[in-house]
Structures are given as structure tokens and as C-alpha cells.
Design brief:
By secondary structure, the chain is mostly beta strands. It contains no helices and nine strands.
Length: 153
Amino acid sequence: MRASQRYIAQITHVRRLILVVVAGGLTLYGCRIETLYDPVNPDRTAPDVAVQLPIAGSSTQSGQRVPIRVAASDSIGVVSISLSVSGVLSESIAVDYSPPSTAVLLDTAVVVPVDSVGSLVIDASATNTRGVTGKAPAVIVTVTAAAPVAAKQ
């Protein structure tokens, strides 16, 4: 068989025997797993996520509106933010971004139920275009009883 009739097959990401049909016959080639590689290192870095509002350790009174702001960024793009509020109330919010963006803000608010005392725990996470999820540190807000309203005389 002349050199011009030989064909070399290269397959990446597959571990199997390669059959190459050459004019005039059948040739078998073997592939070693060491030769198979992905030349592009996949990004496995999680998005940066932070709960900007409210500030951790702050307090609010029952019956009050609590603004929440979550910021997320990622070099390949954020596709979603998930927000969970637990404690004296339970809320969940999920927002998808299409097209993905390298920096996003989620602004929302919750209203603390009247006569509630305890805490609010705010958890947030963001997912990038590769499906990698990053979590923000939980923010805990103390909920106190509303100050009594003085009666008019």
C-alpha cells in the first residue's frame, strides 16, 4: 500500500477502535486514551454572588417592607438567580436572564407579616451558562415587634 493511500483518523473524546477503509483493504487503528484530550479547559468557576441589601445583622420591624438586592457576575454569563427567604415568612424567587449577562442585579422586596418576631434568612445563588452555581453567604435580619402606636386624644 502506498503512503498516499493511507488515511489517519483522529477522534477526540471517544475511546474506541477506529476502522478506516482504505482503497484496496481494511486497516485497523487503535486509539490510546492518553491521546484524547480537550484542548480548551472548561470554565468551572462559579459566579460571584452577593446579597447587597439588606445588610447582614440589620433589623426591621414586623409589618415593614424589606428591600432585597442580589448582585451576580460571571465572565461567561449569568443565566439565572434564585432567591429564598425563610424565617418569619417563606418566599422563593427565580429569575432567568436571556440572553445571559456578565453582571446582573435582582431587586425585589418582601413585607414582614404583622406581629411577627424572629428572623429572616436570605439565601441567594446564581448559575452561569455552563451550569455552574455559586452561592452568596446567607444574610440574617432580626425582626422585632412594631412600636405601639400612641392613641390620639
